[in-house]
Design goal:
With 403 residues, the chain is an alpha+beta fold. The protein has helices at residues 10-14, 16-26, 43-51, 82-90, 96-101, 103-117, 125-130, 132-142, 146-165, 173-199, 208-214, 224-237, 240-255, 257-265, 270-280, 312-315, 334-337, 353-370; strands at 29-31, 38-40, 56-57, 122-124, 216-217, 220-221, 287-291, 295-297, 300-302, 307-310, 375-376, 381-382, 391-393, 395-397. A 5-stranded mixed β-sheet has the order 1-2-10-7-3, with helices on one face. Helix 6 packs parallel to helix 18 (353-370), helix 13 (240-255) packs across helix 14 and helix 13 crosses helix 18. It is globular, with a radius of gyration of 21 Å.
């Protein structure tokens, strides 16, 4: 009897952890007759595929639908050697020194957000905090006007997430493509200005678009289409997953109050707490690869260029890697916790992972210092896209404070 797994089904969306445990035990490699793709659930298999760039490709995009190679979302859809060349163009924006220098500005922005809600006694963690923090950071990194464009950019992030992670044939596909083109036109004059500055011999700056304007691949300037794809990718990757991380952090503190009390009693556990949130509730359930040739995967002979979903969230729950994986425990060893694959592994490991961790840490330090007591204030609403693991709404209430 075949073990059933529906990526879009209510059973999985309602309780992914239980599904992961069942699939790891009963069916670590699954083929969907309905959708045609394969799903991989065990850490060992996922880690092997993530590190095997010869046999597995990202060029058809990270979602279930096939993207046109070369038109995808920046680094996440590039294979070597192009991936390495593109990455070198922007890597300086994500080095340890650059990220450390952002801590003060991020803390200042978080303080402003908390100032806006602390006298109200309630807020929606997602809309009031978890969305604004990474959106402000990525606008700063892309040299975009946050206050003017934040609502429009957030709408585009949701549209792009839907475009990447949908099945590609739903009723909203055409509408999404119209909005994706609108986003490209939003970025175009900004990029053209940076490129023109570079051609005149002026420094276009060290924001991400400026770095792309100065970047070269095999001695050639990065094309306009590549820069537009980069900008779209950075907007989504730099905001959506971090929003999920921050929201999942508070969600789990509410769900496991005894763990939250441990954190309050021992603030030095914060790094472990963030890593345990990443392990237990990965911001992204998984992303897709395609195989370059026909392969054997578990019991299946997988045809060339099939879609294969690597279930990162499941790898993080593998009992072969973590003891008692279904237990949320912020006192786990930090070195062990950092084996989680929530930001990928190998060549495609997320370049912005240290920045996402910093954003969550600064948020947690300031929020828990000023609003140490809080409780749920209504139902939590899940994010509507199957691959992404986060909330659309997380209402809480707390004692009114002048703190």
């Amino acid at each position: 009897m075949t073990t059933e797994f529906d990526f879009y089904g209510e059973t999985f969306q309602r309780n992914p952890g239980a599904t992961f445990a069942r699939m790891i035990s009963e069916c670590p490699i699954h083929h969907s007759a309905e959708h045609g793709w394969y799903s991989v659930f065990r850490y060992e298999d996922i880690a092997r595929i993530l590190k095997d760039n010869q046999n597995f490709s990202a060029r058809f995009g990270p979602g279930p639908a096939y993207a046109q190679p070369g038109s995808g979302a920046g680094l996440v859809s590039a294979d070597p050697p192009l991936h390495g060349k593109q990455k070198r163009a922007i890597v300086s924006a994500f080095n340890a020194t650059t990220i450390a220098a952002m801590e003060g500005p991020i803390r200042g922005f978080v303080t402003t957000l908390i100032d806006r809600i602390i006298h109200k006694g309630r807020c929606d963690v997602i809309t009031d905090i978890a969305i604004p923090i990474p959106m402000w950071v990525i606008c700063r990194m892309l040299d975009l006007p946050y206050e003017r464009d934040k609502a429009m950019l957030r709408e585009w992030v949701e549209v792009l997430a839907g475009a990447v992670f949908s099945k590609g044939n739903d009723a909203l596909a055409t509408e999404r493509m119209v909005k994706v083109k609108a986003l490209m036109e939003y970025f175009r004059p900004h990029i053209e200005n940076k490129v023109a500055m570079e051609k005149r011999g002026e420094d276009p700056g060290d924001d991400l678009i400026g770095l792309l304007a100065k970047g070269r691949v095999d001695g050639e300037r990065i094309s306009m289409m590549e820069m537009l794809s980069f900008a779209q990718f950075l907007l989504v990757a730099g905001s959506g997953t971090t929003t999920n991380l921050i929201g999942n952090f508070i969600k789990l503190m509410l769900a496991y109050p005894e763990q939250y009390q441990k954190l309050r009693a021992s603030p030095g556990l914060l790094d472990q707490a963030i890593e345990e949130v990443l392990r237990y509730d990965a911001p992204v359930h998984g992303l897709f690869r395609t195989n370059n040739e026909e392969i054997q995967l578990g019991p299946y002979v997988v045809p060339k260029e099939s879609k294969i979903c690597l279930m990162w969230g499941s790898a993080n729950r593998d009992p072969g890697l973590f003891e008692n994986p279904e237990t949320f425990d912020i006192t786990r060893d930090l070195v062990d916790l950092r084996q989680n694959v929530s930001f990928g592994q190998g060549m495609h490991k997320c370049l912005g992972a240290p920045l996402a961790r910093l954003e969550c840490k600064v948020f947690a330090e300031e929020f828990l210092r000023r609003i140490p007591e809080f409780e749920a204030d209504g139902p939590q609403v899940r994010f509507p896209y199957a691959t992404l693991n986060g909330l659309d709404n997380l209402p809480i209430r707390f004692p009114v404070s002048n703190n």
